[in-house]
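Extended Data, panel c. Modelled sequence:
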Amino acid sequence: MTNIRPVSDLRNNFAEISRLVHDGNGPVFLTKNGYGDMVVMSVEDFDNISHAYEVHHKIAAAEREAERTEKWYTPEETLNAMRDAMRGDADV
């Protein structure tokens, strides 16, 4: 269920808002004069969203690059390159 609260609850009921965002209830949407004003979420949720955005951005960049090149790698070549990069044996 979406948590929508007036922005005054952030000041008046901070502990409750904090509990809501940390107990896995997702973000709390705060309104001002009946309109959306801001969102409060846990750092963990923010990190997860940021990570998902970063992954999406990198996948989109890789897809654009794939459209511009004719060089394709086999799964084995990719895995070997990843292993080499993790060992520091290759320029990535």
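The beta strands are 3-6, 28-32, 35-40. This feature is highlighted in the accompanying rendering.
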